[in-house]
Design goal:
Order of helices and strands: EHEHHHHHHHEEH
CATH topology: Glutaredoxin
CATH class: Alpha Beta
Distance between the termini: 23 Å
Number of strands: 4
Strand content: 5-15%
Largest sheet: 4 strands, mixed
Structural class: alpha+beta
GO molecular function, one term: oxidoreductase activity
Strand order of the largest sheet: 2-1-3-4
Protein name: DSBA-like thioredoxin domain-containing protein
Helix content: 40-55%
InterPro entries: DSBA-like_thioredoxin_dom (IPR001853), Thioredoxin-like_sf (IPR036249)
Pfam family, one: DSBA
Number of domains: 1
Length: 218
């Protein structure tokens, strides 16, 4: 059986990243008897300024993209409907504030040493989109750590240090240099990049082609 390594470049503050991973899970389940997958998550920050004041998400997006609040609200509602169909909790998506995710990415790296990266990432998605919690806040992050059964006090110690900071910065630099300017991005076997939250069937076709040694660019 062929094995595909998938490096996922994403941000916790990116709703399409959560949707993209849920669609990826569907595709991987469909290919269970054909392909083995290994997953590793890599950091990307949509809001890299740690000193920026948190702002209501609809206001922030409206200003960023030069579109009306009503347009942004409609776009967010569409994503909420997509997420619901995928079993994701985006209940409070429109109530959240902008947030820096650097510390959350550090904890994803830490959780990876325990084989729990994906669980950690999904817990942060749930906190941000499902409960509109501040994923830059240490207490929120530690609660997510404890929710997946990891040690909260150890996580708090990490947050009070610079541990995993270099690893996160190295991730960001590497994938920016590789041309990743938007997320999610899925790097397959360190050769092929699939950009965006593709539908499961598109992923299935791409994975089969890559597993058969054919190049594909979705």
């Amino acid at each position: 059986m062929k094995t595909l390594q998938i490096d996922i470049v994403s941000d916790i503050a990116c709703p399409w990243c959560a949707i993209g991973y849920a669609r990826l899970e569907q595709a991987m389940r469909e290919l269970t008897d054909e392909i083995d997958f290994t997953i590793e998550w890599h950091a990307f920050e949509l809001n890299p300024d740690k000193s920026a004041e948190p702002r209501p998400i609809l206001e922030a997006l409206s200003r960023k993209y030069g579109r009306s609040r009503e347009e942004m609200e409609a776009a967010q509602t569409n994503m909420m409907n997509i997420a619901q169909d995928l079993g994701l909790n985006f209940t409070k998506m429109q109530e959240r504030y902008t947030a820096n995710t650097f510390d959350a990415h550090r904890l994803v790296k830490w959780a990876g040493e325990r084989g729990r990266q994906t669980e950690m990432k999904n817990a942060f998605f749930e906190a941000y989109f499902g409960r509109a919690e501040d994923v830059s806040d240490a207490d929120v992050l530690v609660a997510c750590v404890e929710a997946i059964g990891l040690e909260g006090e150890e996580a708090r110690t990490i947050l009070g240090s610079d541990d995993f900071s270099d690893a996160v910065r190295a991730d960001e630099a590497r994938y920016q240099q590789a041309g990743v300017s938007a997320v999610p991005a899925f790097i397959i076997n360190q050769q092929y990049m699939i950009s965006g939250a593709q539908e499961p069937q598109s992923l299935i076709e791409a994975f089969r082609e890559i597993a058969g040694a054919g190049a594909v660019d979705v």
